[in-house]
TrEMBL record:
Protein name: Phytanoyl-CoA dioxygenase family protein
Gene3D superfamilies: q2cbj1_9rhob like domain (2.60.120.620)
Keywords: Dioxygenase, Oxidoreductase
InterPro entries documented for this protein: Phytyl_CoA_dOase-like (IPR008775)
SUPFAM superfamilies: Clavaminate synthase-like
Pfam families: PhyH (PF05721)
Organism expressing this protein natively: Horticoccus luteus
Keyword Oxidoreductase in annotation: yes
Length: 319
């Protein structure tokens, strides 16, 4: 893979204390130790967790979509993420998925990829969450594939909790991982350490994926961040505050997945079982070679819980 990444400095924000990620790999298999660290920090980071060959296979499939839509620079191998931002900027805002980074049509093409829906079921991921939950795992089929670009209508993901966007149980865990190296200068995910203890935090509307930002109190400054390498994952329950760093490279696309896991014994909101786009599951499944992962959640004993709009209503936070 050609790597045009440099370690361009990421601008400092005032009042931010940066702490490095701690690799939790030595705790794998020890449910009590993993839960204790997650209870302290609000997240777990694992270095080189996913096999790079499988990540790169999906990266290649997603970049092939970018290429078909005419935004990939020529003269790079199948894993190179250099794009033609001027060409992408010709896509008008109303045809964009600004929460994703590319057009609605391109994201639909990614959602149709079998490889995109298969990777979140990797046995290592299932084993991790089985250990954490002490039960069978529901993998939400609503996977999100970020294809973050410098398109003029795309903004870095603001600080938010996933809970108001996903609902169901607050013990839903997000797993975020880049599909390739993602140093801080490429706009990786960063986590507000210990923020899960605050419970639900009031929101304000904001630019960037999700469209909401939490109001932070002056002492909430300890951000865990690091340079991700291919295979690294970070995972956290849905009250943990997180945001993306701003990408410093205008001509690179940042490919990453965010996937959700929960215990089958906890409640789930119905939207989590729907595609993350306007296609139907039938349309998504049309070109797949295997039936094994089609409608798999319908074979699990799930309890649904209703959507609650009040979580998405802006309100003031008293610090
Ligand atoms: O990748 C991003 O910019 C946002 C990801 C995110 O918010 C998540 O994984 O929950
Ligand atoms: Fe999020």
């Amino acid at each position: 893979m050609t790597s045009p990444l440099t370690s361009a400095p990421v601008p400092e924000s005032p009042g931010v204390r940066k702490v490095p990620f701690v690799d939790s790999t030595p705790l794998l298999g020890d449910a009590d130790a993993l839960r204790a660290r997650a209870a302290d920090d609000g997240f777990l980071f694992f270095k080189h967790f996913l096999p790079v060959a499988e990540l790169f296979a999906l990266r290649k499939d997603m970049l092939a979509v970018v290429e078909r839509h005419g935004w990939r620079q020529p003269g790079q191998d199948a894993l190179g993420g250099r794009i033609n931002l001027d060409a992408l900027n010709e896509v008008p805002e109303e045809k964009m998925r600004t929460d994703i980074g590319v057009s609605i049509a391109a994201y639909d093409d990614v959602q149709k990829l079998e490889s995109f829906h298969r990777l979140p079921h990797h046995p290592k991921l299932l084993a991790l969450y089985r250990t954490l939950f002490g039960s069978e795992v529901l993998v939400h089929p609503r996977h999100i594939g970020r294809m973050i670009t410098g398109h003029k209508a795309v903004f870095p993901t603001p600080p938010h909790q996933d809970f108001p966007l996903i609902q169901g149980t607050a013990a839903t865990w997000t797993c975020w991982f880049p599909l390739g190296d993602c140093p801080r200068s490429c706009g990786g995910l960063t986590i507000l350490k210990g923020s899960h203890r605050a419970g639900y935090i009031p929101i304000q509307p904001s630019k960037g994926a999700g469209g909401i930002a939490v109001s932070l109190c002056p002492w909430e400054t300890e951000w865990a961040e690091g340079d991700y390498e291919a295979g690294d994952i970070i995972t956290f329950p849905s009250h943990t505050v997180h945001k993306a760093l701003r990408c410093q490279h205008k001509d690179l696309i940042r490919l990453s997945l965010d996937v959700r896991y929960q215990s089958v014994n906890d409640v789930v909101e119905e939207k989590s079982l729907k595609p993350h786009c306007d296609l139907t599951w039938e349309q998504i499944y049309a070109g797949w070679s295997s039936d094994a992962l089609k409608y798999y959640w319908q074979r699990q004993p799930l309890t649904l819980t209703p959507w609650n709009d009040t979580y998405l209503q802006p309100s003031r936070r008293i610090c």
